[in-house]
Structure formats: structure tokens, C-alpha cells
Write a structure and sequence with these properties.
single chain; alpha+beta; four-stranded antiparallel beta sheet; globular
Length: 110
């Protein structure tokens, strides 16, 4: 599971970059590592880790360094067709990953 999520997140980053912008390979490697750590932490935190889907990854500057915030959401709250049905509120798990220390901080949405 962690490798699949990390690969998916890397693909999202690459697709989001325009042709005129170079994707920084170091940031891409960081993203891959952060998602892998986040997915592993998600598996430790929840008996139903497969019931969650990776929906976001953000690189944030906090306290003088960059950290990654990896966001998972309960699959049950994600509609098959978001254009026809609203996305359910709450159900998010946020995992902040510090790649220097490999520490994680887990917080939850409503």
C-alpha cells in the first residue's frame, strides 16, 4: 500500500507541473519518501487504513524548515462522481512528516 500511494502522489506532482517548469527531482524524492512514511503511519494509526484514500500532499515551511502534510480521507465520504454528489465533510487524517527526524504528527478532521 505505501508504495502505491507514494507513486500516485509523485504522478500528481509531475502532472501538476507545466511543461515550462522543471520538476525538482529532490522535491519529488522528498514527496515519495513523505508519502511512504505517512502511509505507514496511517496503517499504524488505523485498523481500517484501506478505508482511507490519499487526497493531498503539501510541502510547508514551519519553524525554519520544510515538512510535508499528507492528507487521507475516508473513502466512504468520497463520491464516485464528485460533479454529481457532494464530498462528505470530515473524515480527514492529516499526517505531518518531518523528513529530517522522520517524526510524524497525526491530527484528524471533524
Amino acid at each position: 500500500m505505501p508504495r502505491t500511494m507514494a507513486t500516485w502522489a509523485t504522478m500528481l506532482l509531475l502532472l501538476g507541473a507545466s511543461c515550462t517548469h522543471r520538476v525538482d527531482s529532490e522535491v519529488t524524492a522528498e514527496l515519495d519518501e513523505a508519502v511512504s512514511i505517512g502511509a505507514a503511519e496511517m496503517a499504524r494509526q488505523s485498523e481500517s487504513a484501506d478505508a482511507h484514500k490519499l487526497i493531498g500532499a503539501q510541502r510547508l515551511y514551519r519553524k525554519g524548515k520544510y515538512v510535508w502534510r499528507i492528507t487521507f480521507k475516508l473513502k466512504a465520504l468520497l463520491p464516485d462522481d464528485p460533479s454529481a454528489q457532494p464530498i462528505g465533510a470530515g473524515g480527514e487524517t492529516f499526517i505531518t512528516v518531518d523528513l529530517e527526524t522522520r517524526e510524524t504528527v497525526v491530527t484528524r478532521g471533524e
